[in-house]
Write a structure and sequence with these properties.
Blueprint (H helix, E strand, L loop, with lengths): L2 H21 L3 H6 L6 H4 L7 E3 L11 H9 L3 E6 L8 E5 L6 E2 L5 E2 L11 E4 L3 E2 L5 E2 L5 H8 L4 E5 L20 E3 L4 E2 L2
Parallel strand pairs: 1-2, 1-6, 6-9, 9-10
Antiparallel strand pairs: 2-3, 4-5, 7-8, 10-11
Length: 189
């Protein structure tokens, strides 16, 4: 079986599932989802830790409230900076009161002059996750490559509960997550 072809099928399926789910949420449910740091995550957010997040696109989980609260707890914040599909993704320091610049693929990111850093905790977007905490991403491999270099970082996927499946197509380079946070639960192995 060609894993990449199967991943393409799963990407299309889970993009549609996620879009439909989010489009059917009430404004109140959408506002409350991911609006507070859950207790299993807050224990990692000690002053001085670097927490990397991302700027949500479309129906992705929006981590902005979690990042703002982590910053208020004394954590430094970082966001990914991407220059192309093949170039490695870097994490650059950012503060919730700083602006962002347009990047490739419709991303919003810190300016390339922001200081590079190595995050302790990485909040990771995804299309789907499975029982092994393998994540299905957009397909460029940015997060898999970045996480492979962050040996001591904690990778936490942010997902809507409907993005779960028992098993995803995977390759040897797919980095498993340490946990997944949904609007309903905190999941670890």
């Amino acid at each position: 079986m060609n894993s990449e072809l199967d991943k393409q099928t799963q990407r299309a399926e889970f993009r549609q599932v996620r879009d439909s789910y989010v489009n059917n949420l009430t404004d109140q449910d959408r506002a409350l989802s991911f609006s507070r740091i859950p207790s299993p995550l807050v224990k990692f957010l000690t002053p001085g830790k670097i927490v990397a997040g991302y700027v949500a696109k479309g129906s992705e989980v929006d981590p902005s409230a979690i990042l703002t609260q982590a910053h208020a707890l004394g954590c430094d914040i970082a966001l990914p900076h991407v220059t192309s599909k093949s170039a490695p993704m870097r994490f650059l320091r950012w503060s919730p009161d700083e602006g962002l610049v347009p990047g490739p693929f419709g991303l919003q990111q810190p300016a390339e002059t922001a200081p590079e850093c190595k995050p302790d905790i990485v909040l990771v977007p995804l299309l789907a996750y499975d029982d092994r905490l393998i994540r299905l991403g957009q397909g460029a491999g940015h997060y898999d490559r970045a996480l492979s270099l962050l040996e001591h970082s904690i990778a936490i996927g942010l997902a809507w509960s409907v993005q779960f499946t028992s098993e995803l197509a995977s390759d040897i380079w797919d980095a498993p997550l340490d946990a997944v946070l949904t609007e309903k639960s905190w999941i670890t192995l």
